[in-house]
């Protein structure tokens, strides 16, 4: 019973029981312990280098207290997760670091910590492993851990960029070695007298450090064209390639963050909470609704004029500066003037963060309006062509006119299909039944047009 109460002492916002070790407060507490322990480790190393033994015993017992806290944390996490705790590499690394620290203190307690023992290679290894405690800070900080995982995911893409950079540096180094290895200037001969020195100096020039004197000496001896060579080299390597690396890393971090299961779960939770708040505001306003019914434009106006509803959407930064008719046209996917409640919430949820992008929403509203007008005009044109061709065929019965009208029918359908496909709206989706294709599939239509 005590263990059960210990494991379920905290509840989240939904009322579900959460183990104490899984809360943000526990992560913050142990994160602070890791930071303080890392600072004390630096103080201990500095005092040992200065051969100051005044605070040696105090630091020993303080670090021992931190180790006890870390052992307690490990036991609590294993108690909550069970054997699944050891299935993840970060948890294994934590266990290894804490285990090495425990072994170190056991050895010190059994043998002693005099000069002879501290000089042993085994003790030096244990003391070096204490530095790895700082790595544990990555696990207790979710955002820091997410950045590290994103950087690891970006290694594959970045490695190809680095390979391109190395190939370019290698070709440049070989060329400069052939041209400058016989120079009479010692500075040039020392840096370009061999392949490896030339490759290294090209890397140094890539970092834009200490190259002006070397470039000036080369240009003075061999001509001013070397200025152009090194300028082009720096522009390609330092500006283009390195900025490409930065862009690849940023793109990977963003994609990893959007694909994070925790972020998705939090997004769904916020969506459900927003939906609940809006429905409660509608009830307080006296608006009767059924989630299976459809929302007309008049009901949409009443809902969006409710202060509680507007405050709820404003909290998620949905732009409400548009006119109600424009906003309704944007989120009306079917274009039939009606919205289901699920379509209403999902469409407005997609607009979160649009508060600072009013211009893009205005453009989107114009695109939706123009697309609807184009669709109606093309539909009317196709109906007129079909009616005209039918009348001509009935009156004359001419095979040539029949073929001619059939050609215009196919042409009208082709134009309509292109207009249906060329809809650069971000949220709009025009169903297939609104076009003249009817129930035809894409393959049926193409085969019929080819015939």
From TrEMBL:
It is a multi-pass membrane protein. InterPro entries: EF-hand-dom_pair, EF_Hand_1_Ca_BS, EF_hand_dom, Ion_trans_dom, VGCC_Ca_Na, Volt_channel_dom_sf. It is found in: Membrane. GO terms for molecular function: calcium ion binding; voltage-gated sodium channel activity. Residues 325-354 form the EF-hand domain. PROSITE patterns: EF_HAND_1 (PS00018), EF_HAND_2 (PS50222). The keyword Transmembrane applies. It comes from the Eukaryota. GO terms for cellular component: voltage-gated sodium channel complex. The keyword Calcium applies. Keywords: Calcium, Ion channel, Ion transport, Membrane, Transmembrane, Transmembrane helix, Transport. The chain crosses the membrane at residues 24-43, 58-80, 92-111, 147-180, 200-219, 226-249. Its main location: membrane. This is Sodium channel protein type 4 subunit alpha B (Voltage-gated sodium channel subunit alpha Nav1.4b). It comes from Cladocopium goreaui.
